[in-house]
Amino acid sequence: MASEDVKRREGVNKAPSNAVIGICKSLIAGGVAGGVSRTAVAPLERLKILLQVQNPHSIKYNGTVQGLKYIWRTEGFRGLFKGNGANCARIVPNSAVKFFSYEQASKGILYLYRQQTGNDEAQLTPLLRLGAGACAGIIAMSATYPMDMVRGRLTVQTDKSPYQYRGMVHALSTVLRQEGPRALYRGWLPSVIGVVPYVGLNFAVYESLKDWLVKSKPFGIIDNNNSELTVTTRLACGAIAGTMGQTVAYPLDVVRRRMQMVGWKDASSVITGDGRGKAPIEYSGMVDAFRKTVRHEGLGALYKGLVPNSVKVVPSIAIAFVTYEKVKDILGVEFRISD
């Protein structure tokens, strides 16, 4: 009896520690996935933001190829990756929280769904996965939004800007001092609205596509060694998921970026490059930003930067999903997103 009690206590003590280790491994996998995927497409990410906030009265970036060439010519190789350090500082915790939140939200929603249906073998439907993905996206985005806000400004500024943010910490402290705490969450509402279809569709489409492929088993899709989807197939699923999500949510991303520039006294010279163009329009809120953008620049302005973003989002999302699962395999985490 005594030995059984000791074993029982040891089991109870090990359970929490194993759970903590599992959580840490999951967060690490998500962080690595985010950092690797964003660094791989950093030049396209920077060009997308520059196109989104570019002053229409002083055009410098006119397309994907021309824009990348212009950055290379005027700022060199380092210019292509400007803001990537701040982006990784944001995306690593964001991605870690997002993937972990999705797993936890999926478990919780699946438990409630099985309780409601009375079927212990029930699986998540695409709609429930959409809800889990949306929850994960909102939690992760809200937790790291101030870093995203200053990252946008760090990405936009050039070597010729009259005032330089020296890094993420300096940018955060400067915005706090000059514009107040609320400025760090400027553009948060369109981000919340946009993250539902974007992140939600990413997870829902990715998971549903994989389930369908595993069940239908078309030729060449399944790895015969372990009866799982091949890496190439998972990359393709991630690419399709990313393309669908970003196309639906893109106008909200444009509005968010423009709202983040409001209140920045040097925004005009930063965006136009010479300070001679008309100053960027001020926005009082999300609806006002939509209205003024369409009125002054047309509906097409809501999709500025869509081409480099489309080129970027396909490999970015695909790399993130595959890296996440591979890192969890390496770390020995039993529960993976594909499970």
From TrEMBL:
Domain of life: Eukaryota
Keywords, in A-Z order: Membrane, Mitochondrion, Mitochondrion inner membrane, Repeat, Transmembrane, Transmembrane helix, Transport
GO biological process: transmembrane transport
Main location as per UniProt: mitochondrion
SUPFAM superfamilies: Mitochondrial carrier
Pfam families according to UniProt: Mito_carr
Annotated localization: Mitochondrion inner membrane
Protein's membrane topology: Multi-pass membrane protein
Solcar repeats: 21-108, 124-212, 229-330
Cellular component per GO, a single term: mitochondrial inner membrane
Family: Belongs to the mitochondrial carrier (TC 2.A.29) family.
Protein name, entry field: Mitochondrial carrier protein
